[in-house]
Design a protein that fits this description.
By secondary structure, the chain is an alpha/beta fold. It has two domains: about 190 residues, Rossmann fold; about 100 residues, ANL, C-terminal domain (GMP Synthetase, Chain A, domain 3), CATH 3.30.300. The protein is about 30% helix and about 30% strand. It has eleven helices and 22 strands. Strands 6-5-7-8-9-10-11 form a seven-stranded mixed beta sheet, sandwiched between helices. The protein has a five-stranded mixed beta sheet with strand order 1-2-3-4-14. Strand 9 and strand 10 form a beta hairpin. Helix 5 packs across helix 6, helix 5 crosses helix 7 and helix 9 crosses helix 10. The longest helix has 15 residues. The chain is globular, with a radius of gyration of 21 Å.
Length: about 375
């Protein structure tokens, strides 16, 4: 049996407690669904506690099956590193990081504080943070808090008041992390996914009980919180979960490396292009563009076809707040210097609106590509 619930902590928290105690499984769905959203299933395999629909940031969403054991193992591994205490829920419960705030609260025997709904407001965040020791954020939230903290002492005090701030879901801007550290905020970068029941790598180090390896350039993870599979999708399940060395490994689809146990993520494997016969990781191009040209903000780099080079890249940025726009020549020169000529973007597309985002805070690359005409 599966209970489909609204994104309401007052409804989800008691239902999640039951699900973790062998009760009916739950699935949280947003109030507003796309017109083409698939109907919720009525049944799930035995032993499943939670079904999480993935963001679908680059394609068709998946329904991730998580057992109570996996969810609680993730919470225990996190607590072993950062400790236990009261959490502030500041993320949607349709997102694994939001659900894990409730799982950790249940495991610790605490009641979470809850950030009120509506657009993210640093002032409301500061007022809601009183008494909370931990919070999980996405990078765009942290960036807004750090910016607000420059002029609002109550926001700065709230940031410093947390024992730990977890930030994940996508790559964080190093400048924001530096500014947060200068304020005295204790920020930990996390890496993981719905398939690992949340973050299982903290600041590049796998949590206790987890291992990471790079196989043919792809990051693979193993540990006690791996998902049971994708609902009604054996082909995707078989492609994502592999048996090796007597353990189940999750093929993340992320390109990266593991050196002396430390994990470094470059980007998505399917975002590696062949430009003039040279492999180029679009995640690396995106990183250089953001670092070298802060005025471009959270610019996104997409794959495009190129008549001469076969494939190339397109930079998409919000034109409204970047002041003097850098020229394509300047962007190409900066990327060429750090990554080589094949990595230099072919074009820049300027939007006169916010870059579309998913509920998790990640850029909605499908929507961005449609706006850019790619």
């Amino acid at each position: 049996m599966l209970r489909v619930l609204p994104d309401d902590p007052a409804v989800v928290l008691p239902a999640l407690r039951e699900a973790l105690d062998a009760g009916p499984a739950i699935m949280v769905r947003p109030a507003r669904l796309p017109a083409d959203a698939a109907p919720a299933p009525a049944e799930v395999p035995e032993g499943v506690a939670v079904v999480v629909e993935t963001s679908g940031s680059t394609g068709r969403p998946k329904r991730v099956l998580l057992t109570a054991e996996a969810l609680l193992a993730s919470a225990a591994a996190s607590a072993a590193v950062i400790g236990e205490g009261r959490w502030l829920l500041a993320l949607p419960l349709t997102y694994i990081a939001g659900l894990q705030v409730l799982v950790r609260s249940i495991a610790a025997g605490t009641d979470p504080a809850v950030l009120s709904g509506g657009p993210f407001d640093p002032r409301v965040f500061a007022a809601s943070a009183e008494g909370a020791r931990y919070v999980s954020l996405v990078p765009v939230q942290l960036a807004r808090l750090v910016q607000s903290a420059q002029s609002r002492p109550e926001v700065a005090a709230a940031l410093v008041g947390f024992d730990r701030i977890l930030v994940g879901g996508q790559r964080s801007d190093p400048r924001v992390l530096e500014q947060a550290a200068a304020l005295g905020a204790r920020v930990t970068r996390t890496y993981g996914s719905s398939e690992t029941a949340g973050g299982c790598v903290y600041d590049g180090e796998p949590l206790p009980g987890y291992r990471a390896e790079a196989v043919a350039g792809e990051l693979q993870l193993t540990g006690p919180s791996l998902f049971a599979g994708y609902l009604d999708d054996p082909d995707r399940t078989g492609a994502a979960l592999v048996e090796r060395d007597g353990a189940r490994w999750y093929r993340t689809g992320d390109a990266g490396s593991v050196d002396d146990g430390r994990v470094a993520v470059v980007g998505r494997m399917d975002d590696v292009i062949i430009s003039g016969g040279v492999k180029v990781a679009l995640g690396e191009v995106e990183q250089v563009v953001r670092e070298e040209f802060p005025a471009l903000g959270d610019a996104v780099v997409l794959r495009i076809e190129d008549a001469e080079w076969g494939e190339g890249s397109l930079v998409v940025a919000d034109a409204r707040f970047c002041g003097r726009r850098p020229s394509l020549f300047a962007v190409r020169e900066a990327v060429t210097t750090r990554l080589g000529r094949a990595a230099a973007p072919r074009r820049i597309h300027w939007l006169e609106q916010d870059l579309p985002r998913l509920a998790s805070g990640k850029p909605d690359r499908v929507a961005i590509r449609a706006l850019a005409g790619g």
